[in-house]
Amino acid sequence: MSGSDSALYYGDYLQLGKLLDAQHLESGKNGPPAHDEMLFIIIHQAYELWFKQILWEIDGVLRILDHKVVEEKGLGKATAHLERIVAIQRVLTQQIDVLETMTPLDFLDFRDDLVPASGFQSVQWRLVENKLGMRKHDRHAFEKTSYTSRFTDKDKDRVEATEQHANLFGLIQSWLERTPFVQFGMFDFWEQYRESVDKMLASDEQLIRDNPTLTEAEVAVQVANLKKTSTHFDALFNVERYEELLQKGEVRLSHKALRAALLIHLYRDEPILHLPFRLLHVLVDIDENFTTWRYRHALMAMRMIGTKIGTGGSSGSEYLRKAADNNRVFGDLNNLSTFFIPRSELPVLPDEVKTQLGFYWRPEV
Ligand code: HEM
Q: Mind giving me the DSSP string for 319-347?
């Protein structure tokens, strides 16, 4: 049976004619084709298809969040889109195993034919980063040139245009700043939370000082480290101090948004905060999974090319490792655990606040 005007045909629907005719080996142009170049092309194409799906999901989330009021229903959908991205990311990282069936020597059979093309020129990768909310200066710089320096003018314009658009970080921050569940009326949450924090830090210090296995010098080091944690807490309670950290670029999330995120985490067992908690949780998953992919890619590059430079001209795996260390979007959400205190130490919420945070229907007892 072949494609007809009336009945949809598998190959036509998926445009397999185009898709399966899009693997042209560069090595074949100068001599016998290198066997593994087919794998190299297909794996990159598979990545680009998944990047396309990730962008589709991010765009869906941006459309949901880009409103003054985000309904619960929307929040559920946004979380589902983001969870799909996480599932795709697992595939992205696993795919490296397939590529690593190619040995470095096999890669050398066609590597020189690829210069100067490089992953640096993946438009969709940069679109993903920008739509998540990565800013120019968040990236580990490559020879002080712009991250778009390797693009054609057309691609450069397309990527740079997204720097001006709403992105996930910005929309999540605004949503957190607006979140109504963290208004506790007369109940002074922060005062009580601070008392719990002071108690926790004092108890931590006591544990260090009472530890019989530590020398005096080790105690001093550990107490000094604890003081650093306490400095982080100071910033949480002191807006001016927090603003200084923002200015220095040590944090990115606004003070208001950070506090809201913290409350959502601490009281996530309250029904109404559970979905917001899942949303924040999945953002950290996404950030972490891209970091994992970046490290895995850096290790793979090390294995394939050692300390040689990349086809795009960077220092190769060294550049990739530094980018993995550096290029994050939701680091503040990741670091939020600094401010967690045990559930047993959490300020007990007054009944009227608990009612606000619960569902209103109560079973008969
Ligand atoms: C033999 C396999 C590979 C090697 C040796 C390799 C190596 C490199 C190197 C050295 C760079 C830094 C830029 C440069 O100087 O060219 C780079 C960047 C990049 N590569 Fe790969 N790569 C490989 C496979 C892949 C695959 C399968 C993908 C999937 C799309 C990919 C995506 C990227 C991306 C997105 C970048 C830009 C990263 C950034 O700047 O944050 N690479 N690659």
A: HHHHHHHH--S-HHHHGGGGG---GGGSP
Residue range 166-222, pLDDT digits in tens:
999 999 999 999 876 556 666 678 888 888 899 989 999 999 999 999 999 999 999
Q: Which two tokens stand for residue 261?
A: 């995120």
Bridge partner list, 145: 142
Lowest mean pLDDT among 2-6, 90-94, 238-242, 292-296: 2-6
Q: Whose CA is nearest to atom 22 of ligand 1?
A: 301
Residue owning the nearest CA to atom 18 of ligand 1:
119
Whether residue 323 has its Cβ less than 6 Å from ligand 1? yes
Q: Which of 54, 94, 118, 317 to mutate to test the pocket of ligand 1 (most atoms within 8 A of CB)?
A: 118
The structure tokens listed for 349 are: 């919420």
Token pair for residue 246? 């923002």
What is the rounded CA–CA span in Å between residue 333 and residue 132? 14
Domains of the chain, start order: 23-357 (1.20.58.480)
Report which protein residue has its CA nearest ligand 1's atom 2: 301
Ligand 1 near 310 CB (within 6 A):
yes
Sequence-distant (≥ 6) Cβ neighbours of residue 220 within 8 angstroms = none
313 pocket-lining for ligand 1 (C-beta < 6 Å): yes
List of long-range contacts for 275-282, beta carbons under 8 Å, 24+ apart: 275/72, 275/75, 275/76, 275/79, 276/75, 276/179, 276/181, 278/79, 279/75, 279/78, 279/79, 279/82, 279/172, 280/172, 280/333, 282/79, 282/82, 282/83, 282/86
Which residue's CA lies nearest to atom 31 of ligand 1?
119
Ligand 1 near 119 CB (within 6 A): yes
* DSSP helix/strand/coil, 78: helix
Around 20, how many Cα atoms within 13 Å sit in the side-chain half-sphere?
A: 6
DSSP state of 248: H
What integer pLDDT is reported at residue 71 of this predicted model? 79
Whether ligand 1 lies within 6 angstroms of the CB of 328 is answered as no
**Per-residue pLDDT reduced to its tens digit, 308-361:** 888 888 888 999 999 999 999 999 999 999 899 888 888 888 777 777 776 554
